[in-house]
Amino acid sequence: MFELCLLCPEDRVEILSDALDALDALSVSVEDADAQTPAEQALFGEPGMPAPKDGWQRSRMVALFAEESLAKEARDLLAAQDFFDACQVLGIRKVEDQDWVRLTQSQFAPVDITPDFWIVPTWHEPPAQARQIIRLDPGLAFGTGTHPTTRMCLRWIASHDLQGQRVLDYGCGSGILAIGAAKYGASRIDAVDIDEAAVTSTQLNAQANAVSLNAGLPELAQGTYQTVLANILATPLKVLAPLLCAHVQAGGHLVLAGILERQAQELQQAYAPWIALDVADAEDGWILMTATKAP
Ligand SMILES: C[S@@+](CC[C@H](N)C(=O)[O-])C[C@H]1O[C@@H](n2cnc3c(N)ncnc32)[C@H](O)[C@@H]1O
């Protein structure tokens, strides 16, 4: 395989990408050419909020071709186009054959949540000190145990007695929190997500861990639960406040993550009509907020 690397401004990315596609590129990837430099500009926005811009100031585009001749032909054809005027060819290079599966797998090692609770990919042996494990491979849905928000929820689960509890995982992603709750004793678990791929992923991961739970779209959540877990983001968590609080049984727990340290007060205010949230944990600028509903 051969890679053709190009540099282009924001307004040429789409046209170049279409052109590379028409020129038989096997894939086209686009990266921020200024990443990790002082010129890097953040481009993300919270759900429901517009991104600050449609694309990076300068993009590095990499098109993969089966033959060197095809990469050279694409380079020469593109260079002759009007729309290529502000773009630049960075080069063509051979991509060495690699065991991509092994390379990808090597990036995912077992993750410790507590000294004896681990998230372990299926291609790894569990560490000797692991007493409780979740088997999980990276997939389409969020939640492999490496993100601080997931880790804090799992730490909370591991330090509470969920024996026999009815638990709701709202925004289940990979199902990691629901599976964790099952491992720590919860017996009636509903895991819901607006993303159908997450629902499927949760079902498959639950099976792989021999855990019984119900996964589905948000309507699946009905009635009250002794523990409600929701690792989403501050904006949707604020919108969901009345709904999540209504699902918490009297005397039950609400556990929220996906919140930045500076957002603690706005979350407390949004939930104040129903429940009093406190900061229970913090990691890498993210916080875990929890509350117990009055009996
Ligand atoms: C940050 S991931 C959390 C995944 C997993 N629970 C974890 O802790 O790693 C958030 C998940 O919430 C889902 N989500 C976002 N907004 C939602 C909403 N309004 N209702 C239900 N799920 C939602 C997303 O599709 C995503 O799978």
Automatic annotation (TrEMBL):
<keyword id="KW-0687">Ribonucleoprotein</keyword>
<feature type="binding site">
    <location>
        <position position="171"/>
    </location>
    <ligand>
        <name>S-adenosyl-L-methionine</name>
    </ligand>
</feature>
<dbReference type="Pfam" id="PF06325">
    <property type="entry name" value="PrmA"/>
</dbReference>
<keyword id="KW-0963">Cytoplasm</keyword>
<keyword id="KW-0689">Ribosomal protein</keyword>
<keyword id="KW-0489">Methyltransferase</keyword>
<comment type="similarity">
    <text>Belongs to the methyltransferase superfamily. PrmA family.</text>
</comment>
<comment type="function">
    <text>Methylates ribosomal protein L11.</text>
</comment>
<dbReference type="GO" id="GO:0005840">
    <property type="term" value="C:ribosome"/>
</dbReference>
<dbReference type="InterPro" id="IPR004498">
    <property type="entry name" value="Ribosomal_PrmA_MeTrfase"/>
</dbReference>
<keyword id="KW-0808">Transferase</keyword>
<feature type="binding site">
    <location>
        <position position="231"/>
    </location>
    <ligand>
        <name>S-adenosyl-L-methionine</name>
    </ligand>
</feature>
<dbReference type="InterPro" id="IPR050078">
    <property type="entry name" value="Ribosomal_L11_MeTrfase_PrmA"/>
</dbReference>
<feature type="binding site">
    <location>
        <position position="193"/>
    </location>
    <ligand>
        <name>S-adenosyl-L-methionine</name>
    </ligand>
</feature>
<dbReference type="GO" id="GO:0032259">
    <property type="term" value="P:methylation"/>
</dbReference>
<dbReference type="GO" id="GO:0016279">
    <property type="term" value="F:protein-lysine N-methyltransferase activity"/>
</dbReference>
<feature type="binding site">
    <location>
        <position position="150"/>
    </location>
    <ligand>
        <name>S-adenosyl-L-methionine</name>
    </ligand>
</feature>
<dbReference type="InterPro" id="IPR029063">
    <property type="entry name" value="SAM-dependent_MTases_sf"/>
</dbReference>
<protein>
    <recommendedName>
        <fullName>Ribosomal protein L11 methyltransferase</fullName>
        <ecNumber>2.1.1.-</ecNumber>
    </recommendedName>
</protein>
<dbReference type="GO" id="GO:0005829">
    <property type="term" value="C:cytosol"/>
</dbReference>
<keyword id="KW-0949">S-adenosyl-L-methionine</keyword>
